[in-house]
Amino acid sequence: MAGYKRILLKLSGEALAGGAAFGIAADRIKSLGREVAEVAAAGIQVGVVVGGGNIFRGVAAAAQNMDRVTADHMGMLATVINSLALSDALEQLGVPTRVMSAIEMRQVAEPYIRRRAIRHLEKGRIAIFAAGTSNPYFSTDTAATLRALEIKAEVMAKGTRVDGVYDKDPLKFPDAVRYPRISYLEVLAQGLGVMDATAIAMCRDNRLPVVVFNLATSGNIMRMSMGETVGTLIH
Question: Is residue 162 situated within a structural domain?
Fold first, then answer.
């Protein structure tokens, strides 16, 4: 395969923390920025959704007696912080970006408007989609799926801490088996926690392929974008 023309890259917030438990590691975000910039330089249109788990975990907070809606809104604001950090790292490399927020905050980011997002991509800018869907109870995986479908991305690429989808958690079970390819239905039926069920069901219903790959391996974003076999393909 010659590679994709337009991709949606989903990065976990934890990826920005590097080896730390929380926060944003300057060296990690610079290296991520360089990898994403290389993909854009190859002529591939890139949309990005970043999680907020390195700053705030909505569901975990809700479990500790905080109101779930309030916790989720705080999580959305955490994704805005991460999006601005990634935007800054890319802009320092000379790559034009636009942060587009689902929650209006005009002094900080553009409001998310689908047609404008597509125009940014067509002009070679990297569009970073912040604040989830603006609705509580939806994960950033679901937000990433929604944005991927809206901008007509050919694939959703999910960068994680492991190199694909396994039958059980490979960080806990050394005998875990990796799937090179797996169907949406198998992911749902086996309850594999790679993405939440809402996101997987949306991908299935709209035939959006998902590539799950290890973000820590240098060059993986480019390899995936070029259509090489990296990680696990959910289709």
Answer: yes
